[in-house]
Amino acid sequence: MSTALAEQAPHGRSYTPRSEDGTVLQPLIIEPPRGWKPVSFSELWEYRELLYFLIWRDIKVRYKQTVLGGAWAILQPILTMAVFTLLFGRLAKMPSDGVPYPIFSYAALVPWTFFSNGLSKTTTCLVESGSILSKVYFPRLLIPLAKVLSGLVDFAMAFVVLVVMMLCYGMLPTLRTLWLPLFLLLAVVALLAVGLWFSVLNLRYRDIGQAIPFVMQFWLFVTPIAYPSSVLAQPWRTLYGLNPMTSVVEGFRWALLGSGAVELPVLAASVSVALLTLASGVFYFRRVEWAFADIH
Q: Each residue of 77-123: pLDDT tens digit?
């Protein structure tokens, strides 16, 4: 007896699978989960090949039929760095904690670009995947997770340019660099946390997708990218920690350039907000995922 592909049946309607020779197999009923259902990490691991396929598909589609290809991952932060250097570094004379302003801003733009682009893609991922949401069963969390992880490829390319800039400015890695993966992990957690909320809300209210560019513009300027957080006095500096990207940006500069300082209260606030947002995002995502096909 051959294995039939289990397809999702909305509202628990039965689907009758058949073998290759047309023989009717035992009817299969897939009941949509309602309310809170814990995340099954074993199920996510079981579908790891699908996750890999979704990541690879996203990367291929992103650069398909483009002239510059992966160079876009480098151009965006570089061009933004050039504008910030002209406006804030030279005209506004913004302090940069003793570091040349170009690399000061670029070190912050690398994780920010990963977060900004990833949030834009994650917000629309459920709408774009409507054709498979109503047909095939798989853990729905894989869709936003794939969007988040695929962005690490662009991050890696932009990070290589950052390393080259450090060498050009005579900055060598120190033991602080060992902390860098933790700040990158915080960026991934923050992106997935906010992305889960926005992806579901955008499925219900398409205005969310239209508002994302404005949200990201506002978020950019409340994150210390063009300026150091040292220009802020307490308690505003700690309040800035409620924005998880504040600790990510300051952490990258501290770990790579040795500028600024990672303050424990600010870091604790950022980590707490990121984890609470992730927990609530997973809760909301799992609670309403049974209706994704109908909402779409």
A: 999 999 999 999 888 888 888 899 999 999 999 999 999 999 999 99
Torsion angle of C-alpha atoms 284, 287, 290, 294, degrees rounded to 10: -50
For residue 115, the number of C-alpha atoms closer than 13 Å in the C-beta half-sphere is 30
35 backbone φψ class: left, alpha, beta (φ>0; ψ -120 to 50):
left
Task: Show the 3-state SS of 236-296.
Answer: HHHHHCCCHHHHHHHHHHHHHHCCCCCCHHHHHHHHHHHHHHHHHHHHHHHHHHHHHHHHC
**Cβ neighbours of residue 215 under 8 Å, at least 6 residues apart?**
none
Give the closest residue to 141 by CA, choosing from 11, 47, 218: 47
> What are the φ and ψ backbone dihedral angles of 18, each rounded to 5 degrees?
-130, 150
Global confidence as pTM: 0.83
The pLDDT confidence band at residue 125, using thresholds 50, 70 and 90, is confident
Residue 167 half-sphere exposure, CB side, CA atoms within 13 Å?
6
The structure tokens listed for 151 are 């962005």
What is the torsional sign of CA 261, 264, 268, 271?
positive
Beta bridge partners of 2: none
Using alpha carbons, select from 53, 116, 92, 63 the residue that is nearest to residue 249.
116
CA distance 140 to 288: 11
274-283 pLDDT per residue, tens: 999 999 999 9
